[in-house]
Structure formats: structure tokens, C-alpha cells
User: What shape does this take?
Amino acid sequence: MEEESPQNINTKQPQKGNRLRSIIIGIAVVFVLSLLPAAAFAGIWSGTVGKLMRDPAPNTESQLNQYTCKSWGSAPVGAEQKFSNAAAQFGIHPALLGAIFLQENGGGWKADSWTSGSWPASDAGASGPFQFMPNTWKGVIVKSAVKSKCGALVETDVNDIDKAACAASYFIADKLKNSGITNDVGTIKEQDIKDVAVAYTSSYDYFNDWRKSGRDSSKLNPDYLNYHENVWKYFQELSQNCEQVNAGSNNKIVQVAVSQLDYKPSGNNSNCAKYNPGKNCVTWCANFVTWVYDQAKLSIGDRSQYQSAENLKNFFKEKQELLAPDINNIKPGDTLFYKGDGSKTTGDTTNHVGIALSIVGNEINTIDGNANGDKVKQEKYKIQNVLAVGRWK
Assistant: This one.
């Protein structure tokens, strides 16, 4: 990644010709506005200023895409899940994040760096798993969207795979939407993927000039041409066998659940969670799940009736769908009822429940409330530990 004005904010000083042209245009605008009624002027002013003042981060409230992929076999253990989690924060396809990573790391996964946390720096000064230039990283981590989704990042976090992946997801989504490529940040189109690859690695001015010239690949710098061809190749490899859940109730469930990761009750009683109906202090794995339903606008009725995993299981049996566990049929957003507390492999009763996030091989990554550490946490279970699967019709 080359040095550039962070997140499409061009900090270069305007040339003299541009300054004179701006003054002339400004005088013309003032003259035209002076002829408008006050109400019309107010509307134009508020609309223009509102647009200028908004954070350029993409609005992902309705664009969160969650995927289950089975084509990351050569990646380090946990890589697919880490990238899926990071990509979901801003709605991009995890294969795009993975493809950028591979290209920035010479086509390899750098397994040793995943373990050590030490990533080689480029001759130009780029560092970390996504090769951020120093000024670009500084510009990204101050964005309100990044602070909200990725946490309060510092300069040394550029080498943290989870934090850097989250920040890179923001950077990619912003490039897709605010560089004039596409409004669909979850795009899988070849031209979009190639274009954002150029936007990621080149300067803002270079990409903008190339975009205005019609995005002709033959006019690309040979290095950028090679970069965008490789990113498309890696994207195709990593996006095989991916199932997307991007609509309906399951997607809403995942979106809400992800937003609660790492929540932990305050105070001395770890059972006094904000999810509990009536502010009571009880074990709260089922209360977390029904709270997620409520936030996702799924009506379960009186939540106080379903404060145990067993009662919630009966809700699905009587009013929705309760399915036998099948690794090939579980979808992100499904409700998982575990055998016993999840550590047992036999039995027909449950006392713990969670939400499916993704499937990797024979294991399911989940988001559980009241998990180890008495917080909302990502967990992992084998299919044989699942008693039943609840799904909204």
C-alpha cells in the first residue's frame, strides 16, 4: 500500500490555478444563492453541509454480509473466522479481505507472523499484515466508524491481525463506496474487485485520474496491473463454496449478536446482565438470545417465559422450527441448543444456548451469552455437542 491522503481526504495544497478557479466559482455561487428564497437557501445549505460533515465510512446498517466458506484450507487455523468477523463489521466479502492480505504478503499466509505478531515492513515503510503506510493508518484509526466497530486503536495495533483486519475492512469498504466504484460494498463483481485493488494500493490522485479515464487496464502502471489481477485470482480461490446470508431474520440476528461481543455485566454479580427481563439477576444465556431477537424485530412475546435454554427450545418446537443438528444445514443466525452445557455429547436436555456465526469443517463458531468469563463471547463447538437447532420461519 502506498502513502496517500487517508480515507479519500486529499490534504495536498491546491495549486495557484485551482485556487483562482475556486474563488471565481465561489463568487458565482454566492450570486446565485442571493437570488433564491430563504427557504430554498436553507435547504441547499443544510444538505451540502450535512454531506460534507458526514464521516465517509459506508453505512452498513442494512449491508452486513455474513458468509460461511469452505475454501480456506491452506490458511492458518482461525484465519477464515477472523477475516469473516472483520469483514462483517463493514459488509465486505471476507474473500476480498483475504485476497488483499495475500497480495500484500507475496501470495502467502505468513503463518509464523500469525503466531509471533511480527510482520515484515516494506522498503517504502508499510507495515503490518495489511501493509498500511504510517499516515494512512493514522488517518484510518481516528474514524468514528473504526472506533465503534474495531475499538480504540493505536499506532502499534497495525501489527495486530484482528485489529488490522478490522481497520482494513473499513478501508476497503470506504474505497468501494466513496471512490465511485459501487454502492454495494459486498460486491463480488470482477471489475469492482479489480478496481478496489487498485484503489487500495495506489494513491488517491492516481486512482481518481485512472477512474476518470475509463478504468482502462491497459493504462495501468504495470505494478498496479499485476496487483489487481492477483487480487482477483485470490478472491476467486477464497470465495469458492461460500454461502451468503444477507437478508431476512438470520442476518439481523447475526448483526445484533456481533455488536454485543465482549459485553460483561458490571458490578459484583455477574448474573445481573442488561439482557435480563425485569432487571433480575439470573443466568442469562437464553436472555441474551431473546434480547437479540427483540433487537432484530423478531417477536417472541413475553421474554420472561423463556429465561432457560430448555424453555426457549420448546418455543422453537411449538412455534417456529426445531431441527436436528446437521453441519451441512446450519446457517449463520441459527439458534443452537447444546447438550447439557455444551461439553457433553449425550443427553436430550439443554441448559445452554448460543447463536451460530460460521461453520468451519466440522465445527461451529458461535456467539454465546454468559459464556466462559461471564460475558458475550465467541465460542467454538463440535457438531456432536449440539442437541438441536432453532430457526425462525
Q: What stands out?
A: The first helix runs from residue 16 to 34. Residues 270 and 374 are 6 Å apart (CA to CA). The first strand starts at residue 66 and ends at 68.
